[in-house]
Amino acid sequence: MAAERVLVPLSDTVTVRQTVGYAVQSGLEAADADTAAEADADAPDLECHLVVALPYDADSPESQQQRDDAEQLLSRATNWVEEDAADAAVTVETAVLGTDELLFGPRDFADIFGQYVDDHGVDRIVLDPEYSPGATTPMLQPLERELQRKGLAFDEAPVERPARHQRLISGGETFDRFFATFAISLGFYLVLGDPFYWFDLVTGVAVAGVVSIVLAQVTFTFPLDRVQSPLRTVRFALYIPYLLWEIVKANIAVSAVILRPSMPIEPTLTRVNARVRSGLPLTALANSITLTPGTLTVRANDRELLVHTLIPAAREDLFDGGLEKGIRFVFYGRDSAAIASPRERDDAEIVGGDEL
Description:
With 356 residues, this protein is of the alpha/beta class.
């Protein structure tokens, strides 16, 4: 009898322990159902393949920490399998996926799981209903659709989901959030007013204080890094002149086209898989593209941008990925900006013309 082979993608969720338990139980039950076939006393009853797929590339500052966390999770899950298997013959295979490629949306995860299934002869995939590899929300439903598209057998673990409670915030994190919100609010207020006028300084401090007290805990959804956050602020200040230069160039290009009698515009919709993390980095990239004349971000979802371009030059600039590299520099550092353009990595395509 061939062992039942089960693949369990892992992420650090409140239901991952139950998911592993279900995978072991259901796998052993499936193996028992096949005992009428030719049995091999030396063959294991179950092969449990535990994998962690890393969603970020090696250039991101947190990549090494993510790999260490992945190994720890795999070690814990291996112990859970051995505990749940009791005396049954179970073998465990572990792997960290995505260390040599960039994984972003559900399609990328489905592709890498499908490749693993083909390479190891896996019978089915057991999914954690809270599966969220580095994302802020579970990605189960879109992942299920991509697995169905690839024809992969899977089922969702029937686990009990505990009530969600917000993580307690330490005093240090509270101060960091308050200070960051205060600084951003005061800076924005002074940009709109006169930073050298005493009245604007006093009212700016008062307004920033009120904003910080009310919104500090909801403005940032993640703990702030006291080293990386100031560095990102400095890099963002360096990025602004580059963005302004791109805006000036795009203005000149669009004006030249509009002023020509023939007005050779070519409106198109372009899909770009941006190599930046969803959330603030993706929002910054989408807004930068929209601020540049000739391009408009129609949708930004799961690191995928749908951009309307007015002229060919704007589309070519989008394919060259200058703004994307700039945003990577802001959030991940100088080394991370050295990335192939969307054109070079085949991550951009025209999906419609002016008829859309």
